[in-house]
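Researcher: Structure for this, please.
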Amino acid sequence: MNKRKYKEFEEFLIEDLKDPKKAAAYIKTTLEDKEFDSLPQVLALVAKAHGITKLSKASGLAREHIYQLLGKGANPTLKSISELLNAMGLEIMIAPKKHA
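Model: Predicted structure, token format:
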């Protein structure tokens, strides 16, 4: 895939992730698929959709800290993830496991 097509897809995805329901579904799918290593990158796309500066003000986290939390190879704490999600209008929910 050439860089321009990837850029167009990323721009489309970021625009789509402005919708809280779509953002929640995107994050949830990552967790359900047990793609935990990609969670910072997924959260980074959702953060871009919401605006890093806006999230910084809403969460109380410095912009630079948000970039570090969501950078490649990052391992953010549950507290940091919770603060970011809260600033995005999302929350972490725990539910009983569904039995097959």
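Researcher: Any notable elements?
Model: The two ends are 38 Å apart (CA to CA). The mean pLDDT is 89.
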